[in-house]
């Protein structure tokens, strides 16, 4: 399940960039299609992340790892929200700087917790 989760995140980041550049180029129809596929990818990310959180970390809850896993889950949801804000603001033609800053902070937090702190990594 870990590989499915990581793969869905990688596809999500790629789809975010594709949709962002399509919106920037003015290709509204193509960007909307990619944006909807990205929203479907959000569901895969949330499902696989929830499975990992409940099955692996919260099944035998130990204080430091369980709290960090919950924090990583919340940061992952924050990251999905930031991705959606980036695309929505870009679609409307508004400046998306604050959404990109949130994306960067949440992305760094998720990477640090996922690959440095929590034991279930590659």
TrEMBL record:
The chain crosses the membrane at residues 6-24, 36-54, 99-118. InterPro entries: UPF0344 (IPR010899). Pfam families: DUF1516. It is a multi-pass membrane protein. It is found in: Cell membrane. Keywords: Cell membrane, Membrane, Transmembrane, Transmembrane helix. Coiled coil: none annotated. The keyword Lyase does not apply. Belongs to the UPF0344 family. This is UPF0344 protein ACFSBH_09765.
